Fold this sequence. Notes:
CATH architecture of the largest domain in chain B: Orthogonal Bundle
Largest sheet of chain A: 6 strands, mixed
Radius of gyration of chain A: 25 Å
Low-confidence stretches of chain B: 1-11, 298-303
Strand content of chain A: 25-35%
Largest sheet of chain B: 2 strands, antiparallel
CATH topology of the largest domain in chain B: MetI-like fold
Oligomer: heterodimer
Helix content of chain A: 10-25%
Low-confidence stretches of chain A: none
Order of helices and strands of chain B: HHHHHHHHHHHHHHHEEHH
Number of helices of chain A: 9
Amino acid sequence: MAEVNLRKVVKRYEDVEAVRGIDLDIADEEFVVLVGPSGCGKSTTLRMIAGLEDITDGDIMIGGDVVNDVPPKDRDIAMVFQNYALYPHMTVEENMSFGLRLKHYPKSEIKARVTEAARLLDITDLIDRKPKQLSGGQRQRVAMGRAIVRNPKVFLFDEPLSNLDAKLRVQMRIEIKKVHQKVRTTTVYVTHDQVEAMTLADRVVVMNKGRIEQMGTPNELYHNPATRFVAGFIGSPAMNFVPCRLEELDGKLNVRLTDRLAFPVPGQRAVRYHNIPRNEPLLMGIRPEHITEARPHDEPGVEAFDTVLDVTEPMGMETLVYFTLEGAQICGRVNPNWGARDGAPMRLAVDLNNMHLLNEASGVVLGRP
Amino acid sequence: MSTLAIDKSGPTRKVKYGSMRRSRAWALRWSYFFLIVFAIFSLTPPFYMLITSLKSSAEISAATNPWWVFHPTLSNYIELLGSNQYIRFFLNSAMVSVVVVIITMLISIPAAFALARMKFWGSAMLATGVFLTYLIPDSLLFLPLFKMFSFFSDWTGIPLVNHWYVLLLVYPTLTVPFCTWIMIGYFASIPKELDEAAIIDGASWLQTLTRIFIPVALPGLIAATIFAFTVSWAQFLYPLVFTTSTDQLVLPVGIVTTLIKGDVFNWGQIMTGALLGAAPPLIIYAFLMDYYIAGLTAGATKG
């Protein structure tokens, strides 16, 4: 059990800067997920924590000790790889005990630890099999078992579920969460899947182009993104962005989307936006679930408008509706019983209590609390 | 019986699969045709050797059908296996080949591991260089090597030329490059995560090599072993040049130099000796055939 600290960590490959000076403090027992598109530096960061990549600049600390020049085997970490990386010539038991055998643990201790990990992961029956006799999910359990028996200070997961099919991925996600609830080891988990990040993490770190865009709890990132990148990356379907302007009429703040369409900004949001310049081009960000069917008695801040739907996607529990506004395709989520049809006009309502305003050029979310 | 007949005349049997099936059948026929031609081509010499080895000298020189033996005799075998000289050649060959295989493996495996995994400056160039050395023919090398060995003997007083152990120095120049090359390809096909996992598990480079790479790449290792053994066993030019005393000769050279006396060819014994000499590689092939093929194909796609 240990905390992990990164101080201005930089990774440079010849002329490419993969990681551009990131600071990150991971508390003891915390489950942190690094998420971002491919090439954002998240895997490199993980591999630097593991010691598989050298650090160009900065410091990495595990349990308070600087480990920049400590080889991986002395960092007391365990890693689970995307392709499992099980030793193909060893049985499950041998795979799990390999690290302990190298460290000359007593046989009884090894046996006890392997048995316990196998029980925890429900692979007791597979203990004598070779990896090629296992399914993808079982292999991933063995890979986790290999990490658990070592009882390390830190678990590192490198996209462990990406090789599994969608159904199994959901199942293993829950499995990983359960394991972490029982074995409360500090965990750093890398994924490109924002759903995995949201569901697993105590804290999500969104990375982009070698930098940390934002970190926070899943809910913070979802409801209070700092940048357009985070707002667009977290959440599915993604947040809608519409060009807009702020107008002030008779002391009331309006957000104008088109010549004919403008909405009053609700009071608690208007307070945030008081020092944003008026009549400048901005972006309004609004999540699909905040564009719904218009109901007769909507709450304050929920404004109705008419539109013509381009496409509808019935999902069962809801129907996704798509329409065009100022050249931007907008997605909303409506009640499936409301009769949304392709090409049909529909009266929708937008919940401006959850709107975001962004600087069009920099993509920074304005007026964050 | 009747059910079989019904099955055969059933509707599924009448389905035509079109030209795909027919062209496949033709392809099969042609491949069998060529396989048979090649089999005959490569089995004729051993067959001729076997026939001749069973003949007496009188029958060989008599103008009877050379492809058949009318009075089979084991006298060639008895005479050869009873001669200390032949046994000596055999033992020399075995000794040289086994030690060369060991030396080759001791050099090639770590070399291939280093070239495949430890990315150091010039490692890619070195890997290509290793293979290029294999392309230099031995007929070009034996004179300079001879000069080197005699110079070394003059300088240190350790005799090399005309001792069987000089072959232990020479043969690895043939086997090490190729075996290293085979194994670079093989090691390179092992996913990088496997050694990373081993390193995180606490394995040193040496432990990663011995406990992960060697077991996983065993088919490739066996392919390399067979290659090294075959090359050592069958090598003719180097032992012919570097050894001359009869007690230092290996099998291929020994047969040729002792069983041909002037212009008298003792064909019966030559054939017997060659046939017996071909046995050890054959036996090794037979045992390791499956591994050998797996090793060759893996090396082919990656190397």
